Amino acid sequence: MSAMLQDKVALVTGAGSGIGRAVALAYAAAGARVVVSDIHDARGRQTVDQIVELRGEAIFQHADTSRPEDNAALVQAALDRFGAIHIACNNAGVGGEAHVIGDCPPEEWNRVIGINLSGVFYGMRYQIPAMLRAGGGSIVNIGSILSQVGFREHAPYVAAKHGLLGLARTAALEYASQHIRVNTVGPAFIKTPLLDNLPPQTLDALAALHPVGRLGRPEEIAELVLWLSSDKASFVNGAYYAADGGYLSQ
User: Fold this and answer.
1) Is the Cβ–Cβ distance between 5 and 33 less than 8 Å?
2) pLDDT digits (tens, 9 = 90+) for 34-74
3) Of 193, 222, 232, 191, which is closest to residue 89 (Cα–Cα)?
4) 93/84 Cα distance (integer angstroms)
5) Which of 122, 157, 175, 247 is labelled catalytic?
6) Has 126 been annotated as catalytic?
7) Residue 199 CA: distances (Å) to CA of 50, 56, 104, 132, 202
8) Sequence-distant (≥ 6) Cβ neighbours of residue 232 within 8 angstroms
9) Fold of the CATH domain 9-243
10) Residues 99, 110: Cα–Cα separation, whole Å
11) Residues near 6 by beta carbon (within 8 Å), at least 6 away in sequence
């Protein structure tokens, strides 16, 4: 273990698999005590078990990030157990169904926006007051390459990820003088459980969209999140970092 985040308390949403789990493990390996949250309790507890195997310290708290009360309870659980929050990675999200805008059911729009955008607002709404009491902190929100460009048949997702970026930049401006940094990471297509149900030919087609010729790995995203969360990135605020294998350079 490194000491990059020694004595820090870090919270990760959607930490039961994929990018969220990789971030939680990276935080723990860097010395942080980690609050793991997910809607899938068994997966979240598996992440906690993996952290304990690393000789780290972690707790699990069930949280549906689309519910303000779950975000409030998540922060309170962190404070009750560890006494503070210094770092948060708002990662929980869904891909959504494929529809052109003229066929998209309003309930699908509301579901995706509720998790991918409102969920990040609710998270920061309760994380920020706790960080202020701790003297500052770092928030990293997981956006997407689709925070920057469109993508056919996924308007709710694209809109949510664009909105997330504006939300993060505004928070960065509002709290910079109070020692809270807020940044956004924009992954391209990453090999996570969100893609598990896709046929091999679709995965191959997605990989071919990236100039590097492959999908990303959760651990590659976690390394960037870890740096942004640490004091090594102390002058980085309100920024968007693509981790996309060259996707946005096309």
Assistant:
1) no
2) 999 999 999 999 999 999 999 999 999 999 999 999 999 99
3) 222
4) 25
5) 157
6) no
7) 29, 37, 23, 46, 5
8) 4
9) Rossmann fold (3.40.50)
10) 14
11) 30, 31, 32
